[in-house]
Amino acid sequence: MTLKEKKETRSALLFASPWVIGFCVFLAYPLLASIYYSFCDYSVLRPPVWIGLRNYTNLFQDEVFYKTLSNTAIYAIFALPLGMLVAIGLALLLNTKVRGLAVYRTIFFLPSLVPMVSLAVLWLWLFNGENGLVNIGLGFLGIKGPNWLSDPEWSKPALILLSLWGTGNAMVIYLAGLQDVPVQLYEAADLDGASPWDKVRNVTIPMISPVILFNLIMGIIGTLQVFTVPYVMFPGGSPARSTYFYTMYLFDNAFRYQKMGYACAMGWIMFVIILVLTMVSLRLSEKHVHYGGGA
Amino acid sequence: MVNRSLFPALGLIGVAATAWYSERLTAPEVRPGPVRITYWEKWTGFEGDAMRAVVDEFNRSQDEIFVELLTVSGIQDKTLLATSGGNPPDVAGLFGPNVAQYADNMAVMPLTEFCKEAGIGPEDYIPCYWDIGFYKGEVYSLPTTPASTALHYNRALLKAAGLDPDRPPKTIEELDAYAEKLTKRNGSRIEVSGFLPNEPGWWNWSWGYFFGGTLLEGDTITANSPENIRAYEWIQSYTKKFGAGDIQAFRSGFGNFSSPQNPFMSQKVAMVLQGVWMYNFISQFAPELDWAAAPFPHPADRPDLAEPTLVDLDVLVIPVGAKHPKEAFEFIKFVQSQKGMELLCMGQRKHSPLREVSPGFYEKHPNPYIRLFTELAYSKNAIPAPKIGIWPEYQAELNSAFDEVYLMRKTPKEALNYVQARMTPLWEDYLLKQKLREQR
Fold first, then answer.
1. What pLDDT does A132 receive?
2. What does the domain layout of chain B look like in residue ranges?
């Protein structure tokens, strides 16, 4: 290395140091520490004590752990595809050429800017069984709305519906993907006499498939980690633990029950679950995702 | 041309200078004089003002110690984190039922020696309040403001239902009969309810005690004792009578507790179990309400359970690692004096946890039922939250069981057997870990 190169390396490292230090102190260290703590009895207030796999074996016998896992899975299974369908649908609609498009795009994106806690408080009112706007609306249609917030059968559906409120982000990403689809392909399809649906199925979807995959993976991560809205709307996962999600149980273990080691173990199990699901979706999608640049 | 290596150097100097200056700006001034101690407390509003008055009075009364009062939200979590980080406040105002958990983790200092020196002992306090701070042979916390609970009822609604407003229900059976008479329906819709076991729903864990049950005997979890099952059967009788769906719909129309839409204040529920603080909210949001308070009813076949009352306490502790424990206790001692305590409790409009009260305390007190709340605290059926390190988890489990029973998803026996089966190994595990910790 010449003197100049050395000097440059030094400056580069120096300029990158805020990030490097931040990464080590605020990400790498806590990450590694939490692996260690997951094998410890650790109350935060007392030094951790190594207990081997005990946290993990206890977790696999913990009924509440399974309950929260199944609640989370049910939520994800419904909220994720529904959210993707709505986001793609909206993006397709907003990709047409009509007047005032920018206004529509803004309107559909705006809700996803509302902070989660305000969102939760707002929907507490909308879902109110007696005076909520949702049930009043249903009343006009002659349907007697359920007690969304206090009936264990309806609390999860309420949250799944509510999750659509935040599709704006995914929608914008789809929209960007849609605008990258080459016009020639549509023109060629037109020449071949393709119907609008044929074009969506055979041109649009394959062309935006990488975007769909991206949103799918982000969606898996997002829905499995759902926390803020149910935490505010349903204290303690009420009614009857029907909205007690994985992250809420993790949080309670860490900060209310002072079982930080147990909570760390839960965190790492969730990490593995997400990792596996992501790998599976990457593997399954190999044949269906079409990367324009590479092929 | 300026040497390029100067830029990073200048940058570093800039960062260092900013750090140094901001540290200087935020660091407390060091000056000779009184020892400054920090005190974190949860209260805001008039309750916070009452404590501030006590702190000011203490600071004026001497010039050795200066207490800095900081209002802190989420006091438990923050005290926990500050203590584990080794930088706790000198005094923290926690909730009574959390002290066992903190003590088991050696996060709060035992105050036994300090108390002995200062001549503070059980004889000074109403017994149930002293007991809350006493754990495993040590005093870990001393009271600030206490609370006991009583049946609050709407006299006007009783009158309208043809009941004598001067004769509130004395037994659970009477309470049920009153509740039926007071409940008004319009079709399937409930318009007024006499009583609901989950209103306000803050003590869903506690109903077993009203029927003679306990949650812990020695080191044994007793969630599914016959008394507790009886209590949960009583809870379910309300669902059976009024319908789970109808009650849900009715309850979902309730506003926030601290608002004029509170179901008791808006005359939707005629009788509720509430604490000494309820008067404050009524006088703020529904001053016209014609109400009264009386001891909560007991089962007719258990006259020995008369005058049951839930007792709760806000407490002061000294976290382990506090820099000035001695000075901190001086302040706590001042709060425990009759003068300090009455200033605080009168300001918060509660009763005093001390046995002795100054002449005129009750006469001056705005709450017309304040004597009742003091008398109830002396009741042999005063019910504190169990002092058990896994209380937050136990409570969550009981709340979940309550939901299952109330919504008719499980029988009382099933629900409580589940709690028993779940909590017993958790509790044994906790005791074992506790033992291991103590050995080291």
1. 87
2. 35-140+312-378, 149-308+386-431
Contact A45 B252 (CB under 8 A): no
Model pLDDT for residues B328-387, shown as the tens digit of each residue: 999 999 999 999 999 999 999 999 999 999 999 999 999 999 999 999 999 999 999 999
| A294: pLDDT strictly greater than 60 | no
> What is this structure's pTM?
0.87
Contacts of B186 in chain A (CB under 8 A): none
One fold for B35-140+312-378 and B149-308+386-431: yes
The verdict on a CB contact (< 8 Å) between B248 and A15 is: no
Q: What is the pLDDT of residue B15?
A: 82
**A147–B437: do the CB atoms touch at under 8 Å?**
no
Q: For residue range A214-227, list pLDDT tens digits in order.
A: 999 999 999 999 99
pLDDT in the model for residue A293:
54
Give the β-pairing of B91-95 and B65-71.
unpaired
Interface residue A257 vs chain B (CB under 8 A): yes
How many CA atoms within 13 Å lie on the side-chain side of B75? 24
What is the rounded CA–CA span in Å between residue B125 and residue B119?
12
Segments in chain B below pLDDT 50:
1
The verdict on a CB contact (< 8 Å) between A45 and B102 is yes
- Interchain proximity A11–B4, CB inside 8 Å: yes
What is the architecture, at CATH level 2, of domain A63-285?
Answer: Orthogonal Bundle (1.10)
- 5-34 in B: which are within 8 Å (CB) of A? 5, 8
CATH class of domain segment(s) B149-308+386-431: alpha beta
> Three-state DSSP class for B66?
strand
**Is this complex's ipTM strictly greater than 0.95?**
no
Measured between CA atoms, the residue of chain A closest to residue B321 is A45
**Any CB–CB contact under 8 A between A49 and chain B?**
yes
As to burial, measured by CB atoms within 10 angstroms (0-12 exposed, 13-18 middle, 19+ buried), residue B17 is: exposed
DSSP state of B194: E
Question: Side chain identity at A250, as an amino acid letter?
Answer: L
User: Which position has the token pair 């593997």?
Assistant: A283
Cβ–Cβ gap B253/A128 under 8 Å? yes
Question: Which of B80, B396, B407 is opposite residue A239, by nearest beta carbon?
Answer: B407
- Domain B35-140+312-378 CATH superfamily: Periplasmic binding protein-like II (3.40.190.10)
| β-bridge pairing B189-195 and B269-275 | parallel
What average pLDDT does this structure show over A224-238? 92
